[in-house]
Amino acid sequence: MTNTDSNTDADPSARDDRPRDDDTVGRREADDVEEVDESEVTEDVEGIDEQGLTADDGSDPTVDDGSATTVAADVTDVEAGVEADGVADDTSEAEPDEASPGLFDDLLSGEPIFENKEVLRPSYTPRRLPHREEQINNMATILVTALRGDTPSNILIYGKTGTGKTASAKFVSDELETTSQKYEVPCEVQYINCEVTDTQYRVLAQLANKFIDENVTYIESELERLEDTRAALDEETTTVEETGFDSEEALDERIEDLDADREEFEPVPMTGWPTDRVYSTFFEAVDYRERVVVIMLDEIDKLVEKSGDDTLYNLSRMNSELDNSRVSIMGISNDLKFTDFLDPRVKSSLGEEEIVFPPYDATQLRDILQHRSDIAFKEDTLSEDVIPLCAAFAAQEHGDARRALDLLRTAGELAERDRTETIHEAHVRRAQEKIELDRVVEVVRTLPTQSKLVLYAVILLEENGVHNINTGEVFNIYKRLCNEIDMDVLTQRRVTDLISELDMLGIVNAVVVSKGRYGRTKEMSLSVPLDETKSVLLADSRLGEVEDAQPFVQARFDDS
Questions:
Q1: Per residue in 234-287, pLDDT tens?
Q2: Do the annotations mark residue 163 as ligand-binding?
Q3: Is residue 521 a known part of a binding site?
Q4: How far apart are CA 340 and CA 156, in angstroms?
Q5: What per-residue confidence (pLDDT) applies to 547?
Q6: Segment among 12-16, 116-120, 288-292 with least mean pLDDT
């Protein structure tokens, strides 16, 4: 019975007469079905076997056990169905499909403009800082005493954003550490960004953990060296005199002490300890061995603003208690007046040396951009007007080199997206608009909820064609928005203050207008793109509930 079935399956003509459902459907749909030649079926089966589709049990596919004939029958069915659809199969063996290009394959097909984009980021510290030689030399003159084992004077560095303060300080710090290794003088610089690490606890904990890690590394290195010495003594390949110790017992005692020290260095958790315990742990860690430490506090005014001057007081006074180490502080600030809020004792000890970084002018910015672009871009990718335009835009922003670098980098990114090989003036102008919009988005996103409601009231009025919006109109819409989301309503005087804050941020343009005997009022208009600003506001979960609040605008006519 089995043989009869397999022979019947192997015979194409016999299968044509069998009432199989798929064959029947195929013949109903097409009357011109051609007979399939058995030799073509055999070729197809052999082609499939050659591609590795053999039996899972490893049996010889040439053995006629019924499986091959079943495959042949299935191939016949498929071919019949394909031909019934009007698609002729010209070849017995299908060509393998080539992999279609993916999303990123298409984007990578263009020629890149950048050679090293990181050079245009603020975090990059160049090997040469144009137009900052005087400030760098001043810092080096002060810090050179560290290489003699003495305590350098504390330094305060002032200057607006993007004037090269941090880059110059990091450059001098790198040179100091490199020179200290050259002359084998223990000297190091620890960098803390006080905009991120903005409390006394966090500053002390971060510093303590850095010194603890260094101490543990030093101890393990010493232990490895001393244990090798001990092994050499046991093997009698060296003598006690050659080890530098008075006796074997002294060597063993030193190894035990180092083991005990390693166990005592417990990392400080980022929360949970009393501040005085964190300070004592930091003190012990920094004084464990002889070295000169420069603690660089970037954005130092943020630390004072958030936590007062206790941290600076403790750090500036600790040298009188240290036995082995010496500590110097280098503070960097955008605020020229932040020392006015310091305790006089802290101010006198902290501001021993002051260095001011003036803003860059357009010519200096051009030099900086040219120096960076030579490394950042491939050759002949910048048109002649790109760097002067970037420098001119940034010079308008108080000589901000960071802004100039952002402009140049963003212009390059836009050119790459356009699949062009050269950056043109148009890319710089588009980059200026994009950066300005990004700034607006960030400012609006971080506004307090009450300020967002006031701004949204202005947007609703402008959307509905209201011009020369006055404070009373904004207040009426604001009240209804507060009621909609169950928010406390501020007084009209306070709302006027919030409008003034939005004016200072450049989000609205508000001017005081005299109404004669009716008094004075503020009239305002939006200074930022309406649609983008509205989208940012509605992304706030609280304001998302008032998205359909446009009918409230009618209230200005009802209440007037």
A1: 888 888 888 889 898 999 999 999 999 999 999 999 889 999 999 999 999 999
A2: yes
A3: no
A4: 13
A5: 63
A6: 12-16
Residue 177 DSSP SS3: helix
Q: How many Å separate Cα 265 from the centre of its chain?
A: 32
Query: Which tokens in the block code for residue 234?
Result: 């046991």
CA 376 vs CA 112, 114, 287, 445: distances in Å: 11, 6, 43, 32
Q: Is 165 part of any known ligand binding site?
A: yes
DSSP per-residue codes, 126-174: -S--TT-HHHHHHHHHHHGGGGGTSPPPPEEEEE-TTSSHHHHHHHHHH
Tell whether pTM > 0.85.
Answer: no
Count Cβ atoms below 10 Å from residue 477 Cβ, excluding itself: 27
- Is 372 annotated in a binding site? The answer is yes
Ligand-binding site membership of 446 (annotated) = no
Note the pLDDT tens digit of each residue in 18-57: 444 444 444 444 444 444 444 444 444 344 444 444 444 4
Q: What is the DSSP string of 217-242?
A: HHHHHHHHHHHHHHHHHHTTSS-HHH
* Sequence-distant (≥ 6) Cβ neighbours of residue 427 within 8 angstroms: 386, 411, 412, 414, 415, 418
DSSP state, 336?
A: T
What is residue 67's DSSP assignment?
H
Q: Distance between CA 532 and CA 333 in Å, rounded?
A: 33
Question: Quick one: average pLDDT of 171-188?
Answer: 93
